[in-house]
Every structure is written in C-alpha cells, then in structure tokens.
Design a protein that fits this description.
Layout (H helix, E strand, L loop, with lengths): L17 H4 L17 E8 L9 E6 L27 E5 L5 E6 L5 E2 L5 E2 L2 E8 L6 E6 L10 H5 L11 E3 L2 E3 L2 E2 L12
Parallel strand pairs: 1-10, 1-11
Antiparallel strand pairs: 1-4, 2-3, 2-7, 5-6, 7-8, 9-10
Length: 190
Amino acid sequence: MVPERRGLTPSQTVGPFLHVGLPWPDGPHVVPEGTPGAVWITGTVYDGDGVPIPDAVVETWQADPEGRFDHPDDPRGSARSQVEGFRGFGRCPTDEDGRYAVHTVRPGSLPCPDGSTEAPHVNVSVLGRGLLDRVVTRIYFPGDDANHTDPVLCAVPEERRHTLIAAPDGDGFRFDIWLQGDRETVFFAL
C-alpha cells in the first residue's frame, strides 16, 4: 500500500503572540538608565500602507563603543565591555501606536576580515504578524565618515541607503521601519 501524498502544511506567522512570550521588563535597555553617553533610539514600525503595527517586536544586537562583543563568536575573542551593564542586546515590543524605543550607547566600528572596517551600526530584527520570518536590517548613524566606506552600506543602491540611517532626534535618534511600500526599509537576506 502506497501512502497518500498530502500537500505542504501552511506556514505560520510569527505573531501576534509576541506580546505574551517575548518581552521582559528590562528588554529595551541595552545599558542601564544613567549610563554616560547613553541614547534612546526610537521609531515606529509601519506596514506597506503606512499604518503603525501595534504588535511587533524590535530586537537589537550591537558591539560596544570599542567595537567589541562579549561573545565567543567575536573573531578577536570575547571581551567584557568597559561600559558597566552593557548587554549588547535589546528587545522592545511596539505599543498601540507602533512605537518602540531602545536605550543604548553608540557602537564602535567593526573590523572586516579583509582589513577594512564596518561603520558603527546596530543590527535589527523585526518580528510581527504577517511575517513568516523575521526581517533584518541595520541602523547606521548620521554624519559618520565610516558610512562612506562601510562594505554593507555601500552594497545598497545609493538611492535606498537613507532607509538605513537614523535621524537625530533630541538627545537620541529616530529610526522608523517600513515593512513594505515606497518607503520600505532595506532588509538583508541572512
């Protein structure tokens, strides 16, 4: 007897359970309140129609101000940050208006295997309803000379690079994330 062939099981999206299972109280704090030089990166996550998404999660991962990771996968070796309480990781659910905020310090440049350097940046993952997988992007900082030679940023068409550069916003930065549409943020395939 030959078993009957069935179709593929439909994929599931990554939401809306995110607000139940992923947040934790200190999630948006990559560094503690009161850390010298700390900034808030704030923004809104939008769908393709420009409607804020109230049930997404924004995760960040970054190097410390010296461009180091306290992680065994850092090719230079794991190094504890000189910034007290630096975690390198943040997670913030969006609120009812699609807004998120991450409290952090500006990262340092990272060395590339070929001897060049990557400009200071924050890696970002977004999870939310309607997404079958997370989407991944980067936040670069305005006015940083290293942006002109960063190998990842330079690989993005020039007319789209602005979607990866945060805007100054008071004492911090604003970085809106557009999941689709004419203003879509550049996302990377990993």
